[in-house]
Amino acid sequence: MKFTGAIMENQGSQGSRWIAGVEPPKEMLTRGMTSIYEMECREQPECLARLLRAYDEDRSIKEALEQLRNLTLSEGPVVFVGMGASYCSSITASSFLQSFGRSSFAVDASEWLHYSQPVWDETAVSILLTTSGESAELVQLCKKSNDKSIALLCNNENSTCWSLAQIRLPILAGPEYGNATKTYTNATAACIVLASHMLGRTWREDGERACATYAVALDKVFDLRGELERFCRGAKNIELIGRGPAYGGAIMGSLCIREMTGHRAAAHSGGGFRHGPLLDVDESHVAIISALGRTAELGIDLANDCHARGGRVILVGTEERRASERFLPVTIGAVAEPWEGITSVIVPQALTLAMAEKFGAKLPPRFQYGTMKE
Question: Both 164 and 60 in a single domain?
Answer without folding.
Answer: yes
